[in-house]
Write a structure and sequence with these properties.
Layout (H helix, E strand, L loop, with lengths): L11 H9 L3 H5 L3 H22 L10 H7 L4 H14 L7 E6 L2 E6 L6 H25 L15
Antiparallel strand pairs: 1-2
Helix pairs in contact: 1-6, 3-6, 4-6
Length: 155
Amino acid sequence: MTEDFQDKPFNIGAAILGWVLPGLGHMKVGEMARGRLILLGVGGLFLLGVLVGGLDCVDRREDAMWFIAQGGTGAFAFVTDFLNTNLLKSGSFGELIPLAVQNGTVMVSSFKSAGPANEVGTLMCGLAGMMNVIAVLDVLQRPSRGVQKDTQANP
């Protein structure tokens, strides 16, 4: 027996929760184990990317195209970008040192990562965002596993 598209649930609230915090949407529809696995997988990959590439591998101003992918993790990406901007780029953590560029000099944090480690960390955070987008799309059409009411009358 096939279901029509109109008969399937459309869980926009669960999808939004799943974007804000990976796995939370699946937990909302009653799939606790799947939600925890999504949180562990997406959160673990994102955290590993930040550990490998440094806090500055998530930067919405300097790496806007990468941040589109990383933004799929929701709060993880926005909190990391906030910390990068307010800790590293402001100079409140580590000192700012001059860096010669083609049009003059810019001040960068002494904790700014560079090279392959930063690129790998940026990639891992982007992959975590794309994985979460897939999980959000999955929860959009997933039926709720909560307590279902009996539709037949009991004698």
